Amino acid sequence: MKIAVCPGSFDPITKGHLDIITRAAKLFDAVIVLVSVNYDKKTSFTAEERCDLIKACITNLPNVQVDRFDGLLADYVREKQACAIVKGLRAMSDFEYEFQMALANKKLYAGAETIFLTTNAENMYLSSSLVRQIASFGGDISDFVPEEILTPINQRLNRLYQQKKLGKE
Ligand code: COA
Fold first, then answer.
1. Catalytic (active site) residue 127
2. How many Cβ atoms are within 10 Å of 21's Cβ, its own excluded?
3. How confident is the model at residue 165 (pLDDT cuts 50, 70, 90)?
4. Residue 75: count of CB within 10 angstroms of its CB
5. Is 90 a catalytic residue?
6. How far is the CA of 8 from the centre of ligand 1 (A)?
């Protein structure tokens, strides 16, 4: 059985992520969407919230499951005996960082390949922080996040924004 892991912060999941996950699900027997830790980032959603949001978007993908892990991605991939780490590549600016991660992961666990899927042209500019910023100011994010999670994301980010605003006053 060929298992792939799609790792990320998913803070929150966007249509860009979902596109990569859906395409990976066609290439592998099983896909694990892994909510992992990027120590350079402070997240707005808890790991549990991020998992729940992803779960709400993948109900039509029977070979996809969601998990979370606080350790090294390579250790998780080894533990699950996955053969691939799947990531989306948005632009050349992503390449250097992704290349470094892919080499490091390969060094830590040689049993899996990192596979890059090119992001759809319409998602090239998309990022989770862009979504957070637009939603926290009450902007329309319906083009950027799956419809199923539009309301909870808007509610959560708007609340955070109001709390921050009150803190400053
Ligand atoms: N479409 C649109 N946007 C996308 C996208 C796609 N297909 N793929 C990624 N993005 C966005 C993400 O939303 C993210 O946006 P943000 O910077 O505003 O949060 C940005 O592109 C970067 O995504 P990514 O490169 O996947 O970074 P990440 O922070 O989401 O995930 C981890 C990085 C968690 C996978 C990585 O830090 C990791 O593996 N951590 C585990 C610990 C570990 O093993 N570290 C050593 C690794 S060698």
1. no
2. 25
3. confident
4. 12
5. yes
6. 4
**What is the tens place of the pLDDT at every residue in 6-46?**
999 999 999 999 999 999 999 999 999 999 989 889 999 99
Model confidence band, residue 54 (pLDDT cutoffs 50, 70, 90): very high
Give residue 59's identity as a one-letter amino acid code: T
Contact (CB, 8 A) for 128 and 11: yes
State pLDDT tens for residues 72-127.
999 999 999 999 999 999 887 788 999 999 999 999 999 999 999 999 988 889 99
Q: Give the orientation angle of helix 150-168 with respect to helix 47-57, to 10 degrees.
A: 150
Upper half-sphere CA count for residue 90 (Cβ side, 13 Å):
13
Is residue 168 predicted with pLDDT exceeding 70?
A: no
Residues 6+ apart with CB under 8 A from 90: 16, 119, 123, 124, 125, 126
Q: Is 128 a catalytic residue?
A: yes
Residue tagged active-site, from 9, 15, 17, 36: 17
Instruction: Note if 68 is an active site residue.
Output: no
- Pocket lining for ligand 1, CB < 6 angstroms: 7-9, 11, 14, 16-17, 20, 36-38, 41, 72-73, 88, 90, 101, 104-105, 119, 123, 126-129
17: nearest Cα among 3, 36, 2: 36
In the reported structure, the alpha carbon of residue 81 is separated from the centroid of ligand 1 by a whole-number distance in angstroms of 21
